Amino acid sequence: ASLCAAASTCAHAASPPGIDCAKTRVSVEKLICRDPQLTQMDIELTRLYRLALTDERSVPPPDKVIIDQQFWIDARNGCASGPEQKMCIIRSYAERAHQLRQGSAIVRTKDPDRLTEGPLAFRCAGFNTLITATFFSTQPGVVYLKWANTAITLSQVPSDSGTRYTGKDYQGNYSFWQDGNAVLFQKPGSREMSCTVEPVS
Fold first, then answer.
1. pLDDT higher than 50, residue 16
2. Dist CA 121 CA 115 (whole Å)
3. Which residues pair with 133 in a beta bridge?
4. Could you report the per-residue pLDDT of 107-141, keeping only the tens digit for each?
5. pTM, whole model, 2 decimals?
6. pLDDT digit string (tens) for 139-180?
7. Please, are residues 201 and 191 in contact by the beta-carbon 8 Å criterion?
8. Per DSSP, what are the bridge partners of residue 185?
9. Contact 122/133 with Cβ under 8 angstroms?
C-alpha cells in the first residue's frame, strides 16, 4: 500500500482501466474503439486487470500490477508509430493477458464470459523446452506462445478441421494447430512437431 501511495500511477486504480471511446484522443485507442476484435480484447483485458487487483497473492502483487498496467498502456499506445499497427496492438494485448493470467489464480477463474484461456503448457516431440500458450477467443482468435526467450503471437486462419493459427517474425513462419487433444506446432526451419498438454505447476 505504501508503494501505491507513492506512485502517481495508482490513481488509475480508482478509475476504470478500459478505454472511454467517447473521450479518447489517442490514435491507438481510437483504432481499438473502431475495430470489433480489438474492442473485445480491451474489454477482456480490463476484466483480467480488475481481477488481478483483488488477488493479494498475485505475482506481482496488486500495487505493482497497477504500475505495470500503466507502463503497458504507454507501450500499447506506442504501436501508433509502427508499420503494422493492428498486429502490434494484438501482440500487446495477448502478451499482457498472458502475464496477468500467469500471475494470478483469481484471474484464471472459469468466468463463463471469459475470452481468454491458459496459460497451458505443451510438450512437443523433438523440442527441448515447454511451450506455454494463452488463447484469446476473439473473432478471429489469437494465441500467444512463449518458450525460453522467445514469444510469438499467431492469428486464427480458416481450417478444414480443428483450429489453426499462423504468424511470422524475422525468422520466418509459424503455425499452431489444435483439434481436440491433437496439437501440431511448426516453427521456422523445423518440421511439424506433435505436442501434448502438460499440467501447469
1. no
2. 18
3. 120, 145
4. 999 999 999 999 999 999 989 999 999 999 999 99
5. 0.88
6. 999 999 999 999 999 999 999 999 999 999 999 999 999 998
7. no
8. 176, 193
9. yes
Which grid cell sits at 191?
A: 518440421
For the record, the C-alpha cell of 93 comes out as: 494485448
Cell match 511448426: residue?
186
Three-class HEC string of the chain: CHHHHHCHHHHHHHCCCCCCCCCCCCHHHHHHHHCHHHHHHHHHHHHHHHHHCCCCCCCCCHHHHHHHHHHHHHHHHHHHHCCCHHHHHHHHHHHHHHHHHHHCCCCCCCCCCCCEEEEEEEEECCCCCCEEEEEECCCCCEEEEEECCEEEEEEEECCCCCEEEEEEECCEEEEEEEECCEEEEECCCCCCEEEEEECCC
Could you identify the residue written with the cell 498438454?
197
